[in-house]
């Protein structure tokens, strides 16, 4: 009974990871590809980690599996958001079928990271000898 | 060959798709997306191998890989944003 639950969870996890892999090849532009990997990929990894916790039924294993799951669920949206923002600001265009770009005109074209601007350049020669 | 070993093989099938995006990807951001998928599949492979082999130490591998994947994606995103408009 418990083994069947493990099998179903692993099957679901592998299915969602396969969907993410197909999506990353077939989707038309970067933002659609990130949609496939960040959601389907996270769900696939999460289901497999839950399957590990169900299979062993020990406190130490379940704690490790569920903490890995919590970490992935917390960090995957942050990473996807940072990457999508960086891609948009570096000029990656949405695909041709996109008919509304709500961010258009809200960002300066020559955007620079503020923290990078503040740090002095490393190789700048000294002005006064 | 048990069911879990077949699932391990099926999971390996996702790697060529991600590798295709890593090699072909028109922009640097596409390559980072492919790399991100490769690392999350590796996390899943490590967790699934903890089931197949019966050694729970592979869970620690999964946790460490997930940590590194997050840091790598954040670092690359920051690099892309810092680099600005450039064709590749």
TrEMBL record, chain A:
Protein name: Monovalent cation/H(+) antiporter subunit G
Keyword Membrane among UniProt keywords: yes
Molecular function terms, GO-annotated: sodium:proton antiporter activity
Record's keyword annotation contains Transmembrane helix: yes
Family annotation (InterPro entries): PhaG_MnhG_YufB
TM segment ranges: 6-25, 37-56, 62-83
Species this chain originates from: Meiothermus ruber
Sorted UniProt keywords: Membrane, Transmembrane, Transmembrane helix
UniProtKB/TrEMBL annotation, chain B:
Pfam families in UniProt: MrpF_PhaF
Transport keyword on record: yes
Main location: membrane
Domain of life of the native organism: Bacteria
Cellular component GO terms held in the UniProt record: plasma membrane
Topology class, membrane: Multi-pass membrane protein
Intracellular or extracellular location(s): Cell membrane
Keywords: Antiport, Cell membrane, Ion transport, Membrane, Transmembrane, Transmembrane helix, Transport
Keyword Transmembrane assigned: yes
InterPro entries, per database record: MrpF/PhaF-like
Similarity field: Belongs to the CPA3 antiporters (TC 2.A.63) subunit F family.
Name recorded for this polypeptide: pH regulation protein F
């Amino acid at each position: 009974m418990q083994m069947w639950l493990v099998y179903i969870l692993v099957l679901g996890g592998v299915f969602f990871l396969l969907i993410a892999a197909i999506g990353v090849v077939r989707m038309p532009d970067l933002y659609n590809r990130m949609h496939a990997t960040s959601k389907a990929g996270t769900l696939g990894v999460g289901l497999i980690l839950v399957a590990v916790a169900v299979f062993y039924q020990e406190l130490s294993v379940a704690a490790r599996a569920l903490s890995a799951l919590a970490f992935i669920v917390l960090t995957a949206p942050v990473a996807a958001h940072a990457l999508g923002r960086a891609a948009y600001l570096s000029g990656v265009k949405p695909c041709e079928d996109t008919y509304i770009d709500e961010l258009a005109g809200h960002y300066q074209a020559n955007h620079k990271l503020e923290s990078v601007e503040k740090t002095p350049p490393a190789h700048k020669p000294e002005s006064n000898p | 060959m048990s069911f879990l070993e077949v699932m391990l093989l099926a999971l390996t099938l996702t790697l060529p798709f991600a590798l295709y995006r890593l090699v072909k990807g028109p922009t640097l951001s596409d390559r980072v997306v492919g790399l991100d998928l490769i690392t999350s599949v590796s996390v899943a492979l490590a967790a699934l191998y903890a089931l197949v082999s019966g050694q729970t130490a592979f869970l620690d591998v999964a946790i460490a890989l997930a940590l590194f994947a997050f840091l790598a994606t954040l670092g690359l995103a920051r690099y892309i944003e810092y680099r600005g408009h450039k064709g590749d």
